[in-house]
Amino acid sequence: MDNAGYCNETYGSLHNPASDDELVDIAGATLDFSNTEDVPPLDPEYDGNTGYSNGMTGNGAGSSGNGKLMDLLDEPVPGVGTYEDFNTIDWVREKSKDRDRHREITSKSEQSTWALLHSISDAFSGWLLMLLIGLMSGALAGCIDISAHWLTDLKEGVCLSGFWFNHEHCCWGSNQTTFQERDKCPQWQSWAELLGGSSEGAAAYIVNYLMFMLCALLFSFLAVILVRAFAPYACGSGIPEIKTILSGFIIRGYLGKWTLIIKTITLVLAVSSGLSLGKEGPLVHVACCCANILCHLFTKYRQNEAKRREVLSAAAAVGVSVAFGAPIGGVLFSLEEVSYYFPLKTLWRSFFAALVAAFTLRSINPFGNSRLVLFYVEFHTPWHMVELVPFILLGIFGGLWGAFFIRANIAWCRRRKTTRLGHYPVLEVLVVTGITALLSFPNSYTRMSGSELISELFNDCSLLDSSQLCDYNSSENRAFSNTLPDRPAGPGVYTALWQLALALFFKMLVTVVTFGMKVPSGLFIPSMAVGAIAGRLLGVAMEQMALNHHDWLIVKGWCSSGADCITPGLYAMVGAAACLGGVTRMTISLVVIMFELTGGLEYIVPLMAAIMTSKWVADALGREGIYEAHIRLNGYPFLETKEEYGHKTLAQDVMRPRQSDPLLVVLTQEGMSVGEIEGVIADTDYSGFPVVVSQESQRLVGFVLRRDLVISLDNARKRQEGVVSASLVFFLEHVPPQPFSGPPVVKLRGILDLSPFTVTDHTPMAIAVDIFRKLGLRQCLVTHNGRLLGIITKKDILKHMAQMSNRDPDSILFN
Q1: Is-contact 571 555, C-beta < 8 A?
Q2: Any residues with CB less than 8 A from the CB of 410 and at least 6 apart, and which?
Q3: Is the pLDDT of residue 251 over 80?
Q4: 384, CA 20 to 30 Å: which among 129, 191, 475, 574?
């Protein structure tokens, strides 16, 4: 509850901080507290008090000299019921507010045709909003895919028939391409051909090398500069912050229009620069930005933070839907990984929005293959029970890689936050980009983009493939059956295996330092690339073992001589899923995403075995996934629902004040003056105050938020004549008669929450933690025989849990 941001004494100072230089470092970005771009409009008709248990709307009142109460503040006060930046919403109050609004609309719908139409439009608005989110997100995802593909190819050359064509589209209409060199056509020229007239020799190689590095540095420089100059929130993946926002935390501007614009542009630049990052994670952030902006078109979602979070949960599903072409997987991802509150109605709307987004992206057809992703594959070769052993080995590798990556990346990000390294974000991005481009160009598997690499590794070789991975020696021996001929590896395969082994170590190391820099950076594609490389290496090894040793006991039972029994691309797919599962700890949603990617229902069992093994191994080495680890690193007030509370502490052990602390600051329901209350506000930085009958009895009456109190007192001074510091403040429904000569009184019953959640001092903390998780509470009051003893906030619980886990309790930064 202690938040210095609440220390100001007027609504104007609350809404417009005095200093524009008040900055904080969050999620690797320098954030400005003065950003009010995403503050909900304070409409005159906004009823900030709806949802309180007393149902009253009068925020203040004056008393004339004869004791008659002049209720000048019965109309809603703008700002009351809203939340300050970097604070947690009150889920109970927001849901109550929405129930009251819905009850009022339903009751009025029976009175007139116009009210009935308003009720129908209110019910339909949610589906219309989902339609708009799906259309907008799908269109943006298509533009990002097309632009990233073009800029990635621009590092290697340009199309003479139209500079806006990428390499593949440029050569589509050419009649001068050959089967062996299908990627070469007169219309597409490398930079060496353009600048030097030759595509062969050392000079041409150096020219292409330098242009590759220069383009990579230019793209990354533009990305980091745009992020720092216009939208600091646009850096990183965005999923840790989305999870925190969906749990009820307020981060103004994180889902605003500037963040959307800059993230869309810089995501294309960052992916095209060749850094070891992906666009899939940031697409969730982009979709949530679209949802938040479109929410402002509908009063129901603009004025209610809990309803808005239902929409953001659906938007997270849309982001995964357009990232992987997996609508069902996207819905399950939102349910399993990011959402804090996911009612059945949100499930249906998430599915509809994900469907619309996938349809929109399919209509754009960004890759020209009628698919939603670049690495869509179809396998038809059956797998055998013996192959479960290598699949489980891939799961073990994925779990080990996930645990290593999380520890290494968190250590690097902590070093970035606590040392001078964090003061030079532009230099860091340029250095990492330069090293990445320098080391990746000589190896064809690190030079290509992450999506192209995964597509290459997932591919099952056929007669039409000219890849090095498909350079098998031709054999004249064929089995007299429906099986394909055996495929002994040729020199090209062995060369590719060495290059892939080097690419594996390169990707593992460079991804650790790339994720978390001041550019948009997703983790799905780099993690899948690491697993796909490891899986392809193991798949080729298994393939050659089955070919050369088909008389072995473990092989001859299911693989006959000359038959093509092993599909290396399947191993790459299983390895990709295992590594992504080890890093993120996704399970069900990841299986469905991979199934939707491949269309292979028969491969669900290998995927499930590898992903569950990966999760078990990773959980044995560390319980947190990468997103939870970054939430804890940044000090966000996030109560993880998957984490068990196994300690035997009581509420009195956690509540404040402690024995050595000053007494709890309370307000009395009558007898305090405006000046006294303003003095309490000025001398403390608490987010709210319990209201008691009297200082002597300490009998609890209710709870009032600091923000509501400040705004109401400021409004009473401005709009009610005669209110001075000596005016008495009452939280009573009926104000007693006042002396004729006294100043008018201020009635604040309307902003008082008469049903705050309370527990006794002997309540086990395991129960209290469950209450906070399931009800989304901001605070809970502690009583003993009806007398107020103290208060427990969400921050207190997080600090206590950190302390019990031998972590630094001061790492929890926000309310």
Answers
A1: no
A2: 629, 630, 633
A3: yes
A4: 475
Q: Answer whether residue 13 shows pLDDT above 50.
A: no
CB-neighbour burial class of residue 663 (10 A; exposed 0-12, middle 13-18, buried 19+): exposed
For residue 673, the cross-strand partners are 728
Q: Which residues pair with 691 in a beta bridge?
A: 667, 702
Q: Residue 304 and residue 125: Cα distance in Å, rounded?
A: 14
Residue 700: its H or E element: strand 700-705
Q: Are 301 and 252 in contact (CB under 8 A)?
A: no
Identify whether the C-beta of residue 680 lies closer than 8 Å to the C-beta of residue 667: yes
| Secondary structure (DSSP) of 301-349 | HHS-HHHHHHHHHHHHHHHHHHHHT-HHHHHHHIIIII-S---HHHHHH
Burial 51-78, CB ≥16 within 10 A → b, else e: bbeeebbbbbbbbeeeeebbbbbeebbb
Binning pLDDT at 50, 70 and 90, where does residue 290 land? very high
- Do residues 675 and 808 make contact, with C-beta atoms less than 8 angstroms apart? no
pTM: 0.85
> For residues 403 and 496, is the Cβ–Cβ distance under 8 A?
no
8-12, 239-243, 393-397, 459-463: the lowest-pLDDT one: 8-12
Residue 677 near residue 717, CB atoms below 8 Å = no
> Which one, of 414, 472, 518, lies nearest residue 29 by Cα?
518
Q: What gap in Å lies between CA 77 and CA 182, rounded to an integer? A: 69
The string of pLDDT tens digits covering residues 511-566 is: 999 999 999 999 999 999 999 999 999 999 988 887 777 777 666 666 666 556 78
Which sign, positive or negative, has the C-alpha torsion 687, 692, 695, 698? negative
Is the sign of the CA dihedral 95, 101, 105, 108 positive or negative?
positive
Neighbour tally for 95: CB within 10 Å: 17
Contacts with 726 (C-beta within 8 Å, 6 or more apart), sequence order: 673, 674, 675, 742, 743
pLDDT tens-digit readout, 39-55: 443 343 334 343 333 33
Give the tokens for residue 15. 């809404």
Cα–Cα distances (Å) from 667 to 31, 59, 94, 683, in that order, read 35, 16, 24, 14
| HEC secondary structure over 90-129 | CHHHHHHHHHHHHHHHHHHCCCCHHHHHHHHHHHHHHHHH
Q: Where are the beta strands (DSSP E) in 748-786?
A: 758-760, 779-784
Task: Mention every residue, 6+ apart, whose C-beta is less than 8 A from residue 36.
Answer: 15, 16, 252, 253
As a whole number of Å, the end-to-end CA separation of the chain is 6
Q: Report the distance separating Cα 91 and Cα 250, nearest Å.
A: 12
CB 2 within 8 A of CB 686: yes
pLDDT above 80 (res 294) = yes
- The answer to whether 589 and 540 are in contact (CB under 8 A) is no
Q: Which two tokens stand for residue 288?
A: 């949530």
pLDDT digits (tens, 9 = 90+) for 783-801: 998 899 999 998 889 888 8
- Say how far apart CA 590 and CA 440 lie, in whole Å: 29
Instruction: State how far the Cα of 487 lies from the Cα of 32, in Å rounded to an integer.
Output: 60
Dihedral angle computed from the Cα positions of residues 356, 241, 409 and 434, in that order, rounded to the nearest 10 degrees: 70
Write b or e for each residue in 515-552: b if 16 or more Cβ atoms lie within 10 A of its Cβ, otherwise e: bbbbbbbbbbbbbbbbbbbbbbbbbbbbbbebbeebee
Q: Are 560 and 523 in contact (CB under 8 A)?
A: no
CB atoms within 10 A of CB 8: 20
d(CA 15, CA 22) in angstroms, rounded, equals 14
